[in-house]
Amino acid sequence: MKINSNIMFRTVAFALAFSFAAATPAYAKNEKKEKVERSATSDHGKIFQDWVIECEKSGKGEKCAVSQDQSLENKGRIIKFSVGYIGPNNAPKIIAMLPLGISIQAGAAYMTDRGVQMPLQLQQCVASGCMATAMLTPETLNELRDASEVRVGVVPSGTSQTMLINLSMKGFRAAFDTLK
After folding, report:
1. CATH label of the domain that carries residue 76
2. How far is residue 106's CA from residue 125's CA, in Å, rounded to a whole number?
3. Are 6 and 64 in contact (CB under 8 A)?
4. 83: number of Cβ within 10 Å
5. Contact of 99 with 106, CB cutoff 8 Å
6. How many angstroms separate the CA atoms of 120 and 74, rounded?
């Protein structure tokens, strides 16, 4: 899917058409059904402008990510975009919880204001939304760190028009630099 930067995202229409209730943290993938609990680390919950640090503990230790969550009052979450060293071998990874009602065939992608576009791999859809992921190379991570805005593109089911969700990157670099 190619994101057309001239298409305007209409938050209200999108949220009404594809609103959903959100509950689980986006990066809490737990294949062995181990108990996962919020961390009491001093950085958990720390806010860096538009980003917040979220940490979870499991039997394998603690994993932290920086997240931005957008929702509309009384309509639920539009997107949760998390980035951290949460991939295999602690590699940098994006996990995005996208709204239900998107076209699986069209896929999803993100694009920085600096012009770099990358696909998001749709993994599964559950009651809280559709999870999409992307592993980050050092180059794509630096692109995110230097961006002032990121746009996530999805295509609502039954349409062919890409809808864009804009994410502010204010505070992202400072928040991400606190991760280990």
Report:
1. 2.60.40.1880
2. 14
3. no
4. 26
5. no
6. 28
Start-to-end Cα distance in the chain: 33
**Which structural domain, as residue segments, surrounds residue 111?**
11-177
> 63 vs 6, 55, 103, 119, 136, CA distance in Å?
37, 6, 30, 24, 16
Q: Tell me, yes or no, whether 4 lies in a domain.
A: no
- 1 found inside a domain: no
Residue 92 domain flag: yes
The structure tokens listed for 49 are: 């402008």
What average pLDDT does the segment 83-91 reach? Answer: 92
Model-wide pTM > 0.85: no
Higher pLDDT, 157 or 76: 157
CB atoms within 10 A of CB 121: 12
Look at residue 3 and tell me if it is in a domain: no
Identify the H or E element spanning 146.
helix 138-146
